[in-house]
Each structure stands twice: as C-alpha cells, then as structure tokens.
C-alpha cells in the first residue's frame, strides 16, 4: 500500500511505503527518567531516536521552574491542576486539559498556584534540551 500526501510548501507529493518489519523500539521505563528523588522525569529524545524531548513534572503548591528560555518552542499540556504561567511580560492561567506553546527565545516559567498538585507535560521541539536560566 502506498500513501501520498501533498507538502505544505510545494504541492509536490511525498510517497511512503510502510513496512511490517518493526525497527528496534524500546519502552523507556518511567523510573529511568526520574531526576534525583523527586517526581520530575526528563526524556531526552536524542538518546532514544526521537525528534522531541520532554519534562513530566508533578509539583506541590508554589513549585515550578523559574524564568528560562529555549532556542526552540516549548508546548505545555496541563494534565492536572492549575498553573500560573509567565510568558514574556504576560501572566496567564492554565487549567487541567489546557495547552500553551511558548515561542523560541521568549522568557517563560510557571508555578503551581492551585489547591492540589500540578502535573504538566513540557514538550521541547528538539531532540536535546537546551535551557538558559534567568538566575544563572
């Protein structure tokens, strides 16, 4: 079976013929991604053949990363709780189920200011994680 799809820029077609022989695929155990003894996990895509990286965070009230920026966009998915999000000179509120994307090169951070835990998946559009901290 051959699938074709137009490209966004040229109108040309990309042809892909899928295969049934599976490449080497691994399940990465959550525990192997844990940072220290906390509840944060870090996945660096380059180490696993992926084009993205992520942090999976689980914060108590008041916790969250300070101001930082990346040379690529970052997308947040709020899994549980309420976050106060700083993006440049703006302050936003994100609730469970909300998604927000921060453009490359913009200072940003977030904090758990809700009553319960804050769980966020922070997706980095890069196979490696590059962060510059404001307080460094």
Topology:
Blueprint: E1 3-6, E2 13-16, H1 30-33, E3 41-43, E4 53-59, E5 68-69, E6 74-80, E7 82-87, E8 90-95, E9 99-102, E10 108-112, E11 118-124, E12 132-133
- Strand count, sense and closure of the main sheet? 5 strands, antiparallel
- How helix-rich are the residues, as a percent range? under 10%
List the uncertain runs.
none
Assembly of the depicted chains = single chain
What number is the mean pLDDT? 91
User: Rough shape?
Assistant: globular
Rg, rounded, reads 18 Å
End-to-end Cα distance, whole Å, is 53 Å
H-E order? EEHEEEEEEEEEE
Spatial strand order of the main sheet: 3-4-11-6-9
Question: What is the strand tally?
Answer: 12
Beta-strand content bin: 35-45%
If you had to describe this structure to a student in words, what would you say it looks like?
There is one protein chain. With about 140 residues, the protein is mostly beta strands. About 5% of the residues lie in helices and about 40% in strands. It has 1 helix and 12 strands, in the order ββαββββββββββ. A 5-stranded antiparallel beta sheet has the order 3-4-11-6-9. A hairpin with a 6-residue loop joins strand 1 and strand 2. It is globular, with a radius of gyration of 18 Å. The termini are far apart.
């Amino acid at each position: 079976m051959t699938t074709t799809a137009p490209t966004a820029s040229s109108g040309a077609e990309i042809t892909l013929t899928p295969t049934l022989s599976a490449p080497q695929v691994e399940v990465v155990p959550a525990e192997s991604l844990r940072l220290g003894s906390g509840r944060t996990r870090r996945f660096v895509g380059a180490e696993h053949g992926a084009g993205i990286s992520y942090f999976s965070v689980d914060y108590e009230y008041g916790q969250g990363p300070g101001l930082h920026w990346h040379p690529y966009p970052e997308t947040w998915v709020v899994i549980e709780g309420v976050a106060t999000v700083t993006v440049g000179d703006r302050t936003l509120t994100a609730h469970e189920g909300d998604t927000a994307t921060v453009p490359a090169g913009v200072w940003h951070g977030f904090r758990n200011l809700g009553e319960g835990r804050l769980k966020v998946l922070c997706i980095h559009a890069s196979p490696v994680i590059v962060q510059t901290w404001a307080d460094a």
